Automatic annotation (TrEMBL):
The keyword DNA-binding applies. Residues 288-313 are annotated as: Disordered. Residues 288-305 have a biased composition (Basic and acidic residues). It comes from the Eukaryota. GO terms for biological process: protein-DNA covalent cross-linking repair; proteolysis. This is Abasic site processing protein HMCES. Keywords: Covalent protein-DNA linkage, DNA damage, DNA-binding, Hydrolase, Lyase, Protease. The keyword Protease applies. Belongs to the SOS response-associated peptidase family. The lineage of its organism: Eukaryota, Metazoa, Ecdysozoa, Arthropoda, Hexapoda. It comes from Triatoma infestans (Assassin bug).
């Protein structure tokens, strides 16, 4: 499953990070950006369902668009097309969609057959590992990186370069296959929302959780999933295969609270517990330093005291 992601960059950065090579133009092109009213994206290292995050879709969905790909913020958690009332009150868990039942689902099969395929953009996602007792240790899962780049470091994204001849030189974003819906309220309010497709985990993640997102690792996979007019949905599903290479590191329990937007949420922590003897040694050394400091302070203050006494005798 996938219940929390990190999207701490601006839309402008994600446009560059998801650029693609256009054979007709013979250069790299950035997706255009489209942000409807009420769909504001607020970068955060802790994105939860019902919040908005960047989604990539084919420009064919927008008649006025000339770009082949478009980034549009959408709400995480698909709103059923038949739902009436407040868009958050449908009561269904729709942030994930199981690939095994996608064709039999009343909600998802209709979106799939209609061509509402999208690619969810993020720095990485979080998963929790059950440990001893009731505690769960969160991990940050992300795409393998090159040249020592770190997706959890915002500066690595902001300082990265881009050119139309070579494309993006920064951290590799994590791209996940999804479905989206255009929902109309009784008052004709429009909300775009999405779900992330999940599948059985491979060995790369089964130690952590039995489910994982359908991660897209090549531009061929991305375009095959987005090209709903040229790629029939059954063929597109064949492109969703379990990824065999992901990176991860443990993170702080800060991420457990979805209201906590601290930038430290996706930063690595050490799980190494120091032994009792090591802790006792640290305490003994600390005590020795404190005693030494006290003696030194007392020795340094003694001559001043004598001097003051002689001046006033």
């Amino acid at each position: 499953m996938c219940g929390r992601t990190s999207c701490h960059c601006s839309l402008a950065v994600y446009q560059k990070a998801t650029s693609y090579f256009d054979e007709n133009l013979n250069r790299y092109v950035c997706p255009s950006s489209d942000q409807p009213p009420g769909h504001e994206f607020h970068p955060s290292a802790n994105i939860a369902p019902t919040q908005f995050s960047p989604v990539l879709l084919s420009g064919d969905h927008l008649s006025e668009e000339t770009s082949r790909r478009v980034i549009r913020p959408m709400m995480w958690g698909m709103i059923p097309p038949w739902h009436q009332g407040d868009h958050k009150s449908h009561g269904l868990s729709t942030n994930n969609c199981r690939i095994e039942s996608i064709l039999s689902s009343k909600l998802y099969s209709g979106r799939l057959k209609k061509g509402n395929r999208c690619v969810v953009i993020c720095d990485g996602f979080y998963e929790w590992q059950t440990t001893k007792g009731k505690n769960k240790q969160p991990y940050f899962i992300f795409s393998p990186q090159q040249n020592g780049l770190r997706p959890e470091i915002l500066e690595d994204w902001n300082q990265a370069g881009w050119s139309d001849s070579k494309g993006w030189f920064g951290p590799a974003p994590l791209l996940m296959a999804g479905l989206f819906n255009e929902w109309h309220s009784p008052e004709n309010e429009i909300k775009y929302s999405y779900t992330i497709i999940t599948m059985e985990s491979t060995d790369v993640l089964s130690w952590l959780h039995h489910r994982m997102p359908a991660v897209l690792t090549t531009d061929e996979q991305v375009w095959s999933w987005l090209d709903y007019e040229g790629m029939p949905f059954r063929d597109a599903l064949e492109y969703l295969t379990p990824v065999k290479n992901l990176s991860s590191h443990p993170v702080s329990n800060l991420v457990n609270n979805s209201r906590n937007k601290d930038s430290c949420c996706n930063k690595p922590i050490s799980l190494k517990k120091e032994s009792k003897s090591s802790l006792l040694m640290q305490a003994w050394l600390k005590k020795g330093k404190e005693e030494s400091f006290e003696k030194k302070s007392a020795a340094e203050s003694e001559p001043s005291a004598k001097k003051i006494k002689s001046n006033y005798s």
